[in-house]
Amino acid sequence: MTVQLDHRPGLGRLYAKAVATARSRRGDQLPETSVEMADVTIDREQLASYAEVCGFRHSDVLPPTYPHVLAFPLAMTLMVDPSFPFPLPGLVHVANRITQQRTLRADERLTLRVRATDLRPHPRGRQFDMTIEATVAGEPVWAETSTYLRRERPRSSRSAKDPSPQPGEGQGGGIAPTAIWRVPRNIGRRYAAVSGDINPIHLNPLVARLFGFRRAIAHGMWLKARCLAALEGRLPHVLTAEVEFKSPVLLPSTVGFSSQLKGSTWAIAVFQRSSGRPHLNGSIEA
């Protein structure tokens, strides 16, 4: 079943619903429903604000990460639907892959479609993918897969020595930074204002502590956008940008950014400047 939206839903209302229904959510299956919205237009003022917050140049060309912002209300609509099995609070964004087929312009109208797919076990619970497809006049132009982890108590059938990488673990391995970024305390609020992602763990240190963080944390998709912005002008128009979020960036922080071109692929990393602890690892391929 496909749910057709004719306007963007308010994210404040969706977050309130997510909190109100969190305790009642149960299940072992993802909904077969998709959420779609046609004729999505670009607000140029919002686009300019997004570019400023993330470090992109002001342009009528959309940053590769910008359609994520356009589709985020659709993803939220699906995740607060009664058929969705997991409570939104506590889900961990562990990976993101974006494929852009061509340059997207601010005067184009997009059709966006969001689905939840591929529920599967993880050493620390269960994970699933939220997929987004963007088309222009029927032409596929952009796609995204965001992987989320629902943390749960280990089941006896799972090995306690599972070697799979865990979110937030590992060390940076002495990577030499190509840039040092000082991430300000207010970046969570600034990104929330331009993206609509008002999850309070990014805005309020007291709420962040309830979820185990010492301070408010930066949005993962802001961090990915900041990486792509650092390479703006050197990336092809057709690309796949894939990252894993290894550990949260506490606000404020000083982090190192590393980028290295190998053939047609950029290897990128963000890590704690003082300890080398990784925050993000990824690649950008032509």
Q: How would you describe what is shown here?
A:
A hairpin with a 2-residue loop joins strand 4 (110-122) and strand 5. It is globular and about 45 Å long. The two termini are 34 Å apart. The chain has an 11-stranded mixed beta sheet with strand order 1-2-4-5-6-3-8-11-10-9-7, with helices on one face. The protein has 286 residues and is an alpha+beta fold. It has 2 domains: 1-154, Roll (Thiol Ester Dehydrase, Chain A), CATH 3.10.129.10; 172-286, Thiol Ester Dehydrase, Chain A (Roll), CATH 3.10.129. It has 6 helices and 11 strands. Helix 1 runs parallel beside helix 3 and helix 2 (44-54) packs antiparallel against helix 4 (187-195).
CATH 2nd-level architecture of the largest domain: Roll
In CATH, what is the homologous superfamily of the largest domain? Hotdog Thioesterase
Order of helical and strand elements: EHEHHEEEEEHHHEEEE
State the secondary-structure class: alpha+beta
Low-confidence stretches are 157-173
The whole-number mean of residue pLDDT values reads 91
Count of distinct strands: 11
Quickly count the domains. Answer: 2
**Helix share bin:** 10-25%
Radius of gyration: 18 Å
Cα distance spanning the termini: 34 Å
The percent range for strand residues is 25-35%
Determine the number of helices (DSSP H or I, runs of at least 4 residues): 6
- Give the strand order of the largest sheet, numbering strands 1, 2, ... along the chain: 1-2-4-5-6-3-8-11-10-9-7
- Per the CATH scheme, the topology name of the largest domain is Thiol Ester Dehydrase, Chain A
CATH top level label of the largest domain: Alpha Beta
Major β-sheet, in short?
11 strands, mixed
Describe the global form: globular
